Amino acid sequence: MANSKYEYVKKFEVEDKLPPCNWVILRIDGCHFHRFSAVHDFEKPNDVNALMLMNSCAVAMLEHFPDIAFDYGVSDEYSFIWKETSQFYQRRASKILSLGVSFFTSMYVIKWRDFFPHKELKEPPYFDARIVCYPRAKIVRDYLSWRQVDCHINNQYNTCFWKLVQSGKSEKEAQELLKGTLAKDKNEMLFTQFGINYDKLPAMFKKGSCVYKDHVEETVKIDEAGNPVKRRRQMVVVDHIDIIGNKFWKDHPNILKED
Amino acid sequence: MANSKYEYVKKFEVEDKLPPCNWVILRIDGCHFHRFSAVHDFEKPNDVNALMLMNSCAVAMLEHFPDIAFDYGVSDEYSFIWKETSQFYQRRASKILSLGVSFFTSMYVIKWRDFFPHKELKEPPYFDARIVCYPRAKIVRDYLSWRQVDCHINNQYNTCFWKLVQSGKSEKEAQELLKGTLAKDKNEMLFTQFGINYDKLPAMFKKGSCVYKDHVEETVKIDEAGNPVKRRRQMVVVDHIDIIGNKFWKDHPNILKED
Amino acid sequence: MANSKYEYVKKFEVEDKLPPCNWVILRIDGCHFHRFSAVHDFEKPNDVNALMLMNSCAVAMLEHFPDIAFDYGVSDEYSFIWKETSQFYQRRASKILSLGVSFFTSMYVIKWRDFFPHKELKEPPYFDARIVCYPRAKIVRDYLSWRQVDCHINNQYNTCFWKLVQSGKSEKEAQELLKGTLAKDKNEMLFTQFGINYDKLPAMFKKGSCVYKDHVEETVKIDEAGNPVKRRRQMVVVDHIDIIGNKFWKDHPNILKED
Amino acid sequence: MANSKYEYVKKFEVEDKLPPCNWVILRIDGCHFHRFSAVHDFEKPNDVNALMLMNSCAVAMLEHFPDIAFDYGVSDEYSFIWKETSQFYQRRASKILSLGVSFFTSMYVIKWRDFFPHKELKEPPYFDARIVCYPRAKIVRDYLSWRQVDCHINNQYNTCFWKLVQSGKSEKEAQELLKGTLAKDKNEMLFTQFGINYDKLPAMFKKGSCVYKDHVEETVKIDEAGNPVKRRRQMVVVDHIDIIGNKFWKDHPNILKED
């Protein structure tokens, strides 16, 4: 029984190869996570376990897809930078998009119990995703700076907002109090009203999370003289550092090396 | 702290709205499911629990996304037909693609335990997905016919193949024996060598699975005279029937009704 | 001397095939024709020679590209409807777009002298073009209705505007006088102020121009008895008729016949 | 009379903005120019007037569209490099494509008589066109190298081919004689059989034509002492030089300067 009579329907498929020599950024974002985090009682403004679950999935992504060079995450959002030379499924956008977001989602549900052993998953977490191409490494850096600035702005706002709410204000009142305030006003408010030194908050909240492969030195054994024998090994690290300035990129020149 | 300096990177995002008045088919497909089904000891050629897990996720899709009109599934593949009038996220392809495949994946992992209570998930299931637009209902029907013919061809082949393997042939020998055989040869082989009447195999294996909303009559209570009080109600049904001929579509004219 | 070292640059070309089973409309539009028509002293609001030059080029298009089913033109704009089954250059958008607009432009310059024997071409006429796909014949009809309604609205406005200007008003005054007027106000103004019965204006101005192949009867010779011998022959016609109502399409069912 | 009922058809138009920070190459190519050049008796293998007509149109392009940085032409083909920063019609591909090819075509017909005063245009010249985006200046250089290598290969082949034909061989025999020959074989054949030193052929044939803006020094007047007063002025030049090596680009660093 031949299938040829109907096979013409395949002709409606559209070729969607991404242009060569472009860095490909896959960004995923929790869908309806405002509700999802309320349903699951996430701590406000930052739930450490929820962030670590996201980070753990991002590590799995980097390990699973060899063409990912760098991940950056904040809140319920993660960006995955695919090498400009990647030939993963001939750079077909729908493959990168669907396999990436599907794998991440799968990991999120599987790992849920590791980070929330006492919380049942009450509704399915799921994510939207998009793909954007960037023609040069320096624009990828600007992209990452854009996300990290956003992380900072949102975190500062949310920290103030939830402190106000936790101190008895309604959400509406908190919103009103923050309208039009500048960065330094918010730092001031945190310090004087709540005794919080913003700079001392965890780096993960302020800087977001970077996931990448790095060379680390590890002790593999102790020799007969009692000295540690060390070896450099490449491993995936999660870090919460500034990626806007040049230092990180000077220290890790291979991540965004252009062909 | 303004973010404007880096916001230009948003301009690299590409508008990907699907054309109006087109039916949108989202097809998902298990990635590396050959290995995944081996790792999890799926029965060959068809694992009833694995198929029912897929169907259960497909039901959840239809219930969750109101613009899906019909699902059709076979093996580790499912097609979701979005109404031609859908305005879901303004018809942005990446939204439909990512949210659809992510939600399905999430359900698959969550429901795993319902269908495989004694099997641990050993690796993350994940799916690729693609989107294809079809300008007319009759082409959507041809698309579905294409998938259902494929279901039949593959099932017949796989039934023979695994029977041969289970009877002691190597996979290579089984392949050789089946090379060039016609449909009737395979039916003959099943009947004479293995005593199997292909027509008597479960419809789910031969026809795949259709998921759609239908009006069903249900007894809501028994009245004082002891007679059942019935009510017509719309509910999601899973069916294993022919969708190539006209009968199904005459019986369900609303599913592919064109604007 | 091999060229292979540089040939990788071809990989940056993007496939741009238009989806099957869609009608393809190529619309061209004069670029800076406001100035072009001023520079060449076109009569206002309608220059018969300029319109006939456009029509003549549109006839050439229909004769040259066999997959064009119908042209519709108004002012310095023309739409060309390509059959939904067209396989012209495998439906590559850039081919249809570039060859269509380039051929039209070439004809426009070549034929200029036929319609303006006493006017020198003072600057190069050129056109922009776009391509839009329509999934069904009835939407193509709506597209044509959209253009023909536009033709009527613009022509009525422009007729009033230029009559006012020619009667001594400034362009600004004319604009002010017409602001907010309805169709019947404009007809009234034309009749009472300028003695013009709008309905009696040339159909080409009010309805635009349709170009298509039609069967016409022509006398091929006179037989011995002195009677004309007629033969039906297909030829390209230019017509100025209503294409919003059903009559034209009932009379010419083949033009937008769907596969 | 409102047009709103039909205006929904505009929604079928697809946004086609080219990605930012990419160089945009518009390449046009004569359609059926094999026949066109035969019909108009172009000299083989190179017709100087036909090439100069192409060059003259390319100069007009550079002067008309301020965002074009460089043109390169060979035979009936021309590439136009649009600056990576161009915001011409918001980078809409169909605008750049259609306006570019239409303007070029218009100039070609208008200027025909300047280069072929004694030849009537017997059929309309028209061109196809395509657009390709290149993310970096160095890839644009590779693109140009690709075209210039092609120019050389084709010119060498065509020079031999037409010499053989003009010496009495049939086109088929000439083809056979050249099959499998290397560059040096062809040079040898030209020299020994036809007394032609390939290196001495006009640079326009061997290198193609480059069009760009350059600073030239011109004498604006002679002062009282009889000395020429010179001024540097930017003007469009047509040159036939190597653009594969670094020299040209070192001498003209602004042409492909990246933002």
Automatic annotation (TrEMBL), chains A, B, C, D:
Keywords linked to the UniProt accession: GTP-binding, Magnesium, Metal-binding, Nucleotide-binding, Nucleotidyltransferase, Nucleus, Transferase, tRNA processing
Provide the catalytic activity annotation.
Answer: a 5'-end ribonucleotide-tRNA(His) + GTP + ATP + H2O = a 5'-end phospho-guanosine-ribonucleotide-tRNA(His) + AMP + 2 diphosphate + H(+)
One family name in Pfam for this protein: Thg1C
Q: Quick one: which residues bind Mg(2+) 2?
A: 29, 76
Q: Which GO terms describe its cellular component?
A: nucleoplasm
Coarse class of the protein's main subcellular location: nucleus
In this chain, GTP is annotated as bound at: 29-34, 75-76
Q: Which GO terms describe its biological process?
A: tRNA modification
Name the cofactor(s).
Answer: Mg(2+)
Annotated positions binding Mg(2+) 1: 29-30, 76
Localization (cell): Nucleus
What does the UniProt record say this protein does?
A: Adds a GMP to the 5'-end of tRNA(His) after transcription and RNase P cleavage.
Name of the protein? tRNA(His) guanylyltransferase
Q: Which organism is it from?
A: Vanilla planifolia (Vanilla)
